[in-house]
Amino acid sequence: MFGVLKRNGIDRLSKALGSEKVNTSIVERKLYSYDATPIPVEREVPSAVVFPESKEDVQKLVEVCYEENIPIFARGAGSGLTGGAVPTSSKGVVVSFERMNRFEVNVDNTTATVQPGVVTYEFQQHVEKLGLFYPPDPSSFKYSTIGGNIAENAGGPRCLKYGVTREYVLGIEAVIKEGKTIRTGNPVIKDVAGYDITKLFVGSEGTLGLVSEATLKLIPKPPKRATALALFERLEDVGSAVTRIMTGGIFPSALEFMDRDAIRAVEDFKPVGLPRDVEALLLIEVDGSEGAVREQIKQIEDVLSSMGVKVKTAQSEEEAQKLWTARKNLGPALGNLKSGKINEDIVFPRIYLAEALPRLREIAKRYDLMMVIFGHIGDGNLHVNFLYDKANKEEEERAERAVDEVFELALSYHGSITGEHGVGLTKRKFLKWQFGETGYELLKGIKLLFDPKNLFNPGKVIEL
Ligand SMILES: Cc1cc2nc3c(=O)[nH]c(=O)nc-3n(C[C@H](O)[C@H](O)[C@H](O)COP(=O)(O)OP(=O)(O)OC[C@H]3O[C@@H](n4cnc5c(N)ncnc54)[C@H](O)[C@@H]3O)c2cc1C
């Protein structure tokens, strides 16, 4: 009986959209049942992969799925790290937005209308040629999509100065329960009419509906940038250096951190000449006019030298790019260290970093685990990685227990369990810790208002 129902639903989708947009081959279905999550997650092979090509297709597909009770798993590039795009029901369909990859820039209004499947890097390259700038720069920006970035409220190094994806989404068009289309926001900076549903949608991880279009804010492209590298003999000094920089009248466009093991891992992976004998480093980027950049670099050199920290400024764009490539290579570089990795992205208020960093190390020591820390330290967002041998179940369990302590530590300092990777499947338990009972009830209520049948990305973010 269920088989018949399922077939009918898929047949209806094929009829409504055209069979070339609904793929039921087992190869395709299996391929689209994964994302980049490094740990095993609950995962099912979907009954079809649907490729909408327009807003109208998105509307029609949700209408059919809602009538046929088919779970809907939205997917951008599948680069998510918390299982967000992974189907959790074999009844469901994966909706891949890769064919919705067009955009239009309104230069005079400094806004753009973007389909969800646009690759972030391609969009950024295009607007920069027009003298404009779209800052959100997750390390996955070369392949991740605007739709996935919106659903995860993605961030990256530049978000310290320029803010995360949410700051750049002025409006969205989305399809929610029963195939209803909602339009929120406008291509304007100021708009306080009603509740801010646009911002609510950003970071909703495909659980409220499908984003079928977005209006993005653009800003003028900063003319110059420069990068400095600071080298630390003592981990304890990093937090104070960050505070000194951020309170010293300097506003870096990026402030990134790598600990000793992170440095060694990238040097083993693709060497760029970073010193292997320091405890930590900071990569600091400033941008603006030529004069402002020169002045800020000088201030950074003065602040750090006065603390006894060694600092070097990249002498060319090529040298700076090399340093940033090392930072962006960290994800794959860690994969070479051990077969298993749990990568968390907790956040601490910046003032507690000096205290929290050594406490993170203590957790690793207590659980006898290899830990590598790097991240967007300027906004207190740290990627804490526990590395283990997959064949060693006991070590894997130890790593899972250590992660619980890492989250407890972040929450005890009024931080967050996730700064950018989202909750997805892997952090559901911890979301309850962060929101408490009443907050969690509100989340559930919001979810059911948009999706009373729990068909949009069921099982993700919250447990109903
Ligand atoms: C090497 C590496 C480095 C990374 N670095 C960063 C980083 O620096 N910062 C950061 O923030 N993240 C980072 N990530 C995580 C990931 O790339 C981001 O979360 C990214 O935003 C996901 O985009 P995507 O297109 O791959 O989306 P997917 O992974 O396909 O999907 C992510 C979520 O978005 C939902 N979704 C996708 N499209 C839509 C839509 N149209 N409507 C509704 N929901 C939708 C999915 O259901 C899912 O819940 C990194 C990942 C990797 C592999």
List keywords for this structure.
single chain; alpha+beta; Uridine Diphospho-n-acetylenolpyruvylglucosamine Reductase, domain 2; Uridine Diphospho-n-acetylenolpyruvylglucosamine Reductase, domain 3; Alpha-Beta Plaits; 5-stranded antiparallel β-sheet; 21% strand; disordered N terminus
Sum this structure up briefly:
47% of the residues are buried. The protein has 464 residues and is α+β, with helices and mostly antiparallel strands.
Kindly report the spatial arrangement of strands forming the biggest sheet. Answer: 15-12-14-13-17-18-16
* CATH fold-level topology of the largest domain: Uridine Diphospho-n-acetylenolpyruvylglucosamine Reductase, domain 3
Total domains: 4
Give the CATH class of the largest domain.
Alpha Beta
Content-based structural category: alpha+beta
Identify the bound ligands.
Answer: flavin-adenine dinucleotide
Compute the separation of the termini in Å. Answer: 26 Å
The CATH architecture name of the largest domain reads: 2-Layer Sandwich
